[in-house]
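Archive record
______________

***
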Amino acid sequence: MQLDNLISYLDASPSQWHAAATSATRLESAGFTRLPVEGEWSAIPSKGFVQRGAAVVAWHRGSDVGPVSPLRLVGAHTDSPCLRVKPNADAGGFGWKQLSVEVYGGVLLNSWLDRDLGVAGVLVLRDGTHRLVAVHEPIARVPQLAIHLDRDVNERGVVLDKHQHLSPVWGVGYPLDGEFREWIAATAGLAGSDIATWDLSLFDCTRAAVLGPHADLLASGRLDNQASCWAATDALAASVQPVGHTAVIALFDHEEVGSESISGAAGPLLEHVLERLALATGATRAQFLAQLAASRCISADNAHSVHPNYPERHEAGHRPLVNEGPAIKLNHNQRYATSPDTAAFAQEVFEAAGVPWQVFVSRNNMPCGTTIGPITATRLGIETVDVGVPQLSMHSARELCGTKDAPWLATALLGWFSGS
């Protein structure tokens, strides 16, 4: 069942590093071959992928492709707003042990209060190797100030200083230098001296859950944008060999902070992989550029469903509903890459798969966010459409969507990858 498959993906991916690893594992199980980013590729398999940091680029090449055969590309991102553990983690005072954290991305700050938090990510060892670590048990908590000490909080709202008010407590006593390092090392079967550095995130320990008497809602952390990563990975893994094109997915890191990194959409990873694939067919530089111009990209990143308590925040006639299909996202100020041509193309993809679709356009006085879509279109010159699963509580520690929309997105992508 697709929904169970999605829930398994979410629960296995408490950090962007785990999302990339989960996708890589599922691709390998489907017969995809991992290639190193470094060095020359002596032979390129028809089904393969590369992983750089927390980013994955994978492909399924058609048997009859030539130098200018188009690409069918789906882009998404593995990262989510969160609290990252700083290198010198041990902090605190007044009889409390705390963790020093850095706010990553556009975090909905109050959503991190009074939640049982685990920690997950990657440890970089002194020998240069990486060790994934995920502690799903509660180890920390950001306690909210009691109402007795903040009497008008319900009238004026919760006001949080990112630096002062978000340090979680994780014990009683006084901070000891290196205590967190030794503890996280022990969870991975290591000594603290083995660790050179880390990239660790706190996450809500609550597992993904289906809600409601009709089981039509899904609550989980990191739905933005792991729901899209799952859909892209699931579709590519299940695809039959394409005819006349190559199916590609690109799951980037660092979208939530601008994508400007070696593993982000503004970096060279995707372009370099695509050029290597083109060279393997004997393509010239001119033919590679012609291939890009003939290709299409679906940028998959979740959309804002209309909120029943705040319907005025949406434009009338463009209010996505959950379980009514993925939304095609438009913005003429180019926050989304959708053009008239690519909007029509997306409609064709959804309708060919029997998947319902809807449209999202933001209010003029309510600027929308952006995605990897404009970056990919600008960097590669590929016609791109932005689509997304409608959801509530975007950038919360725990988000909410319908149970049908992400499986529908995966179904549509599978049809597009496998179709002629």
Remarks:
- The mean pLDDT is 96.
- The two ends are 26 Å apart (CA to CA).
- The chain has two domains: 2-80+221-418, 82-204.
- DSSP finds ten helices and 20 strands in the chain.
